[in-house]
Amino acid sequence: MPSSLAKPDSDQCIGHWINGALTAGAGSASGPVYNPATGEQAASLQYADAATVEQAVQVAAAAFPAWRDTPAVKRARVLFRFKALVEAHRAELAALITAEHGKLLSDADGSLQRGLEVVEFACGIPQLLKGDFSANVGEGVDSYSLIEPLGVCVGITPFNFPAMVPLWMFPLAIACGNTFVLKPSEKVPSCALRLAELLTEAGLPDGVFNVVQGDQVCVQALLDSPQVRAVSFVGSSPVAEHVYRHASDRGIRVQALGGAKNHLVVLPDADLEQAADALVGAAYGSAGERCMAVSVAVAVGDVGDALRDALLDRICALRVGPGTDGAVDMGPLITAAHRNRVLACIDAGVQAGAELLADGRKLSVPGHEQGFFLGPTFFDHARADMAIYRDEIFGPVLTLLRAESFDAAVALVNSHEFGNGAAIFTRSGQAAREFGQRVEAGMVGVNVAIPVPMAFYSFGGRKRSLFGDSRIHGEEGVRFYTRSKTITSRWPDEGADASNAFDMPVL
Ligand code: NAD
Questions:
Q1: Class of the CATH domain delimited by 262-446
Q2: Which residue of 82, 289, 333, 502 lies most exposed, with the fewest beta carbons within 10 A?
């Protein structure tokens, strides 16, 4: 099927995907979508009003009974075909991601691979939905559990992974038999629509997967809709907390993943070259706009100066430019407003007295002077009370802190408000083991800077990086998108004695 969405252009008004078709929806609000590498407006986006959101939810609710009753093996076959289609259109999807987000094409492709791994996991749904069966829990009585879908599930996703984060959610939700309404970030709307087209091409019935575009008005309408049964949210912590509280108040199941400030602890026995290589990639990859980006390096003992020098050599060699240029290491930030925010964070770090060793503020990329670029920035001798350490900056800014001991480093990590990922570089198995057990983070790396779990494990942090009990994908994801029921059954002979029917049943 030829795509009408592959190349956004400035005259294009991007709409929604409801009931298996593109639609402009009602309401007059719209907003710009930029190409961050040029700074130009690439298209405009239709923002769904409450009526359009409700239309999408009603469509999803109407599609639910038939999809729920479709055998899990048949639902899985749709996902097998979808996986093949995403693979066939990988270059096109990566180009869409880079056009609206700005990240490198290779990075966009890598994020698609991580998303595809969730589709692969979801293809095993018949196995994952098997319930329990116990024969003879009483004389002639059997018990078994049914694992059932919830109904209409909602996904609200951030700008930084236009394909991967939605793919964390909807493949598993629909594999479980739910129907879905996705609200992508208004900054990167096109990829979700292309995925919707590919789902339809894969044979997904109309109405099972829908996309509504917009901002917080759209989110609020989704949270208020009476038919919505579960909400998956990924984004910043203040919004995650709002979504969590609102959904919880309404008794809706909710998982809400928030922001991060990930630490990488370097012990004196670590291979410094390896640690520095890993740190630079983890801090500046995707311009630091990753929830698993490392934004804090913690040098333990006397390793600080050598680590700083090794980092600085590498940082000075980084090349910044448009994500379509295969020779660069880092693309632009998402918007001019976000770049200004990161610039203000850097200014605050300087004023607070941290030592600015690499200053990305003045960077200009020839031929892309209006792009939202910012060079790699590196602070040494930051302190835990400084805003550059406390706040999530979400840009290409790495901060180096010194800790006297392993215990002091663990205490520093654990006292931060966020607890998404944490990593340690060391040659000591004992220290690594201790770190893994004591650190308050949901994902821990040992000589791995960005410990993003595979799809068959779950993804999610602790503290203000995750609101709710449920992490995303893996078996926790299956449990999130289903609920169970226990059936106790007895098939007595006709006319058998039932004289104790008024007693508390004792099997
Ligand atoms: P964001 O919180 O601004 O937006 C996320 C989603 O919420 C978007 O769809 C947006 O339209 C919507 N939204 C924004 N403001 C809202 C409001 N006031 N009320 C209701 N909805 C609102 O996040 P972002 O800037 O798109 O993404 C970056 C953030 O996401 C960072 O904090 C990053 O750490 C986080 N993130 C976390 C993870 C994780 O797994 N923990 C993964 C990716 C990104």
A1: alpha beta
A2: 502
